[in-house]
Amino acid sequence: MIATLVRIELLKIFRKWRTYIGFIAIGVLVPLLHLAMYLEGQNSIDYVTRGLRDSFILVGNLLNGYWISYLILNALIIHIPFLITLVAGDLMAGEATAGTYRILVTRPVSRIQIVTSKYIAGLIYTSLLIFWLAFVSLVVGIIVFGSGELIVAGSQAIIIFEKSDILWRFILAYGFAILSMTVVCSLAILFSSLVENAIGPIVSTMAVIIIFIILSNFDVAILKEIKPYLFTTYMLNWREFFNDPLNISDIAKAVLILAGHILIFFSASAYIFKKKDILS
Amino acid sequence: MSVFENIIEISSLSKRFKEVLAVNDLSFAVKRGDVFGFLGPNGAGKSTTIRMILSLITPTSGSIKIFGKSLIENRKEILANVGAIVEKPDFYQYLPAIKNLEILAKISGKEVHQSRIYELLELVGLKDRAKSKVKTYSHGMKQRLGIAQTLLHDPELIVLDEPTTGLDPQGMKEIRDLIIRLSKDENKTIFLSSHILSEIELVANRMIIINKGSKVVEGEVNDLLNSKSLKVTVEVENIESAKRILDNTKWYNLIENFSENKFSIKLENKDIAELNKYLVENGVMVNALIPVRSLEDYFLSITSSAK
């Protein structure tokens, strides 16, 4: 039954216009960034490598698809949550607004199955959006700019990855991005289960993310205590895959904390929906 | 599911929303094959009760048994055999009617063939608009689509919450005919809520009236509505001469009140003609004699006070 419900949820998601806003936004924005890098990218490379050029001779194609994808992922991963919440915030509240809970909940399916199918459908939508981002930025980036070594400026050092040592890092980084965006999706569904209008969950989720990001980045002693408990602290940990050597324990900790958040948000949504009186 | 007589058994059912007691200690039973009228003015607690029967709302107290089984413990099994419209028929507006029915068929708990979906669309007169998005449908068309979705999985019990609301007279008649056909030809048990007494009278064999969440009366429609006791409003040309003529007669103590050109009197059906004859023979011009059954009178009074 869950598979049937998930197929139905996906049908509902992909028959709505709002679903495509995220895909269109990425499809328009990333090529614009590609164009900007095509025109001005060499200046950026020169800026990043300005300290190295005094001591080293840099050869090869540093302005390549990998480098541009790294920059795009860095720039967009904070903004993708806006696109996720547009759909996830509507998943449950949309049923209440439309009055369709009445035809859904009076069928012989459990409420837990309904919530689970919505979570799985939300996860699939989130994954597809990140896959689309990966395709447009990485695949198209490599086609347009070619491949080459990746130069990454870390906090302590500048690391140059060999061409053959990069792709797997991107695959894991996009996988991590899916996990962190699923936390956003889960939070939006949780808010969505509380209300009967999709605007509330969308705005609330974004408000939480903005507040958490500010708290995560504010370097004050008292905030350092709560920082480890904010999921936004770990959202940018995909960058860890571009460290050498990899800090496995940090990555594992971030994965566990984000997965824990998903589990908590899911459990809360399921509990709320199970107890909810359908009055819409 | 054939050994029990009561399809629905409601016992001491209550629902409280904070300080509002929407349903108060309600008990009744719907028997197999009934077209059961569930009557009450707006705000009486009908929809809340229906939502509890369909597990959309959790009761504060009391129990609901359907097909002889507890709804809480056997929800899925029970709902696989129930079709329902709750209040207005809402669907996924951005999907065609056929797609809405396909979705609902897939989660109905029974195998529903595509031919059954088209058969039902034809039954409710929407076959030609099957591929139109529901947002292009009129209210009446949505109501008919709502009827179609209740029948998808051939349920034994059909719950219809005010199914004729917003329909034109022809549409109302079609729904009534369909209810009668489903009851007589397909032996369905139908639980029909309405705030219109005449609508229930036309199709139901048993009924309950609720007001302010509590039961007022329950029984056979014929017994409740064909009561011999009537309240007759008599409209006359001259109320003073009517008063004078009736004074010191057997009628006078039966009169409830006089107004400008009419009076109300409690009578049995057989006495109406006699009263009319007496008045006319004594020179009182009678313009109208309007009999209202006592239950109808009561229902009208609670309906008007609820507005």
Please characterize this protein's 3D structure.
The complex is a heterodimer of chains A (280) and B (307). With 280 residues, chain A is an all-alpha fold. Chain A has helices spanning 2-14, 19-48, 65-76, 80-88, 93-98, 101-105, 111-145, 167-194, 199-217, 221-226, 248-275; strands spanning 150-153, 158-161. Chain A has a two-stranded antiparallel sheet. The longest helix of chain A has 35 residues, at 111-145. Chain A is elongated. The mean pLDDT of chain A is 89. Chain B has 307 residues and is an alpha/beta fold.
Overview in brief:
The complex is a heterodimer of chains A (280) and B (307). Chain A has helices spanning 2-14, 19-48, 65-76, 80-88, 93-98, 101-105, 111-145, 167-194, 199-217, 221-226, 248-275, and strands at 150-153, 158-161. Chain A is mainly alpha-helical and 280 residues long.
Short descriptors:
heterodimer, A: 280 residues, mainly alpha, two-stranded antiparallel sheet, 11 helices, 2 strands, elongated, B: 307 residues, alpha/beta, Rossmann fold, Alpha-Beta Plaits, four-stranded antiparallel sheet, 14 strands
What is the count of β-strands of chain A? 2
Question: Looking at the chains present, what oligomeric state does this protein adopt?
Answer: heterodimer
CATH class division of the largest domain in chain B: Alpha Beta
- Averaged pLDDT of chain A, please? 89
N to C succession of SSEs of chain B: EEEHEEHEHHHEHEHEEHEHEEHEH
* Strands ordered across the widest β-sheet of chain A: 1-2
**Strand runs of chain B, count:** 14
**Biggest pleated-sheet summary of chain A:** 2 strands, antiparallel
Radius of gyration of chain A: 21 Å
Number of domains of chain B: 2
Measured by DSSP, the beta-strand proportion of chain B falls in 25-35%
Tally of separate helices of chain B: 11
User: By helix and strand content of chain B, what is the structural category?
Assistant: alpha/beta
Number of helical segments with 4 or more residues of chain A: 11
